[in-house]
Amino acid sequence: MPRVLVTPHLLRRQAAPFAEILTAGGMDVVYPPGDVDTVRPGELEPLLDGVDAILASTETMSRALLSRHPLRVIARMGVGYDAIDIPAATE
Prior knowledge:
Elements: E1 3-6, H1 17-24, E2 28-30, E3 53-56, H2 63-68, E4 73-76, H3 86-90
Parallel strand pairs: 1-2, 1-3, 3-4
């Protein structure tokens, strides 16, 4: 079952349509532990083990991070992709 990590604080543990849709599509929706701030360096990476996709906030997705955790999908809540290394994500 594909796993989707949802990091935005506004979406964590919400009974919301996005979670129902992903679950109905056969995906396992997971969230960071309560006090983890995934925007702070070093706090996101351990959560990416075994994750296939991420619904992200403003977390930085560098080439190094993406090479260690090859995600199939990166979706951003908000505007822009300036925190994501697009060529590395494309590869």
